[in-house]
Amino acid sequence: MKFATDAVKVTVPATSANLGPGFDAVGLALDVRDELHFELLPSSDVEIEIHGEGETTLPRDDRHLVIRSLRRAMEEIGLPQTGVRLTAINRIPQERGMGSSAEAIVAGVSAAAAFAGLGDEARDFIFDLAAHIEGHPDNVAPAVYGGMTVSWDFEPSREVPVIDSPVLKARTVVSPTDGTASFPGSAEPFKGGYHTVNYRVGERINAWVFVPDFKLSTEEARHALPTDVPRTDAVFNVSRVALLPAAMAADHGRDVNAMLFSATADTLHQRYRSSLMPQSWELMTFLRANGYASTISGAGPCVLVLHDGDDSAALRDLLDSRWLAGGHWRMLHPAIDRSGVLYEAEGC
Length: 348
Prior knowledge:
CATH class of the largest domain: Alpha Beta
Distance between the termini: 19 Å
Main location: cytoplasm
EC number: 2.7.1.39
Strand content: 15-25%
GO biological process, one term: threonine biosynthetic process
Number of domains: 2
Number of helices: 10
Catalytic activity: L-homoserine + ATP = O-phospho-L-homoserine + ADP + H(+)
Number of strands: 11
GO cellular component, one term: cytoplasm
CATH topology of the largest domain: Ribosomal Protein S5, domain 2
Order of helices and strands: EEEHEHHHEHEEHHHHEEHEE
Largest sheet: 7 strands, mixed
């Protein structure tokens, strides 16, 4: 395949994963966007210019996650490998639980799609490849599609039972050749792997992210989680994550903030990570003690608040003296992003 253009622009929103109970499944896109400009070079060189977040820490060669993802996607699409100049304007905080790694992967894969001349029809390809590179889809999905997403990994051979009986005959659901599953009434086979769906987010839903001056790696946060959890905790989270779509849609005629508070409660992961980010745990607990639907954003250490209506002034008054005034925390009030990744050719 030939390049359709020699320069592309990509912007990707920040994301907040889990939203409390939806561990590794739920994500929300936030309108804090990284902006990346890619230009093909006649040589095999990689030139990287970084402004903003990570400008003193991120690599400036082939180790950069954006470049690695770009090259992987170029290989998948069938584009020749070549040199590239990347100019990144980074606004998403790094290693804070706002999806900076998912952003980098989605940006690289989307740039390859744009170089190939692919339009919005490539969005599903971008999601699938980016989720496989990331290893989980919870941040990738909202970064690609915008809004609130719920994602899952479908494994046909594990999930579809096999009947081994001379009496009971079952139709062949899972294809022995490509592993897809064909369900009664479905128009086409359902492939294994990552999938996602969008849920409506009400226009009055506001989000705030409280960003600390310290970092926490996702890998370290994952190592803090137990292998097994009590059944009562699992049942609790199932009920709360099932409530999330209705709470976020905010169109059910009930007290939205009361539903958001219940829908963002978690027993599976946040408390196990609290010792890694005690300041974040203290802030989240304080916010919930004051009635706000607050969670750890992703693996942390950012803290997320969701609310029906703009309560910025009240939140600032509540937190100013202890958290905001000292300079160790800053408050962001991004809009809910409803577009996902945007990618286009430049200079045409």
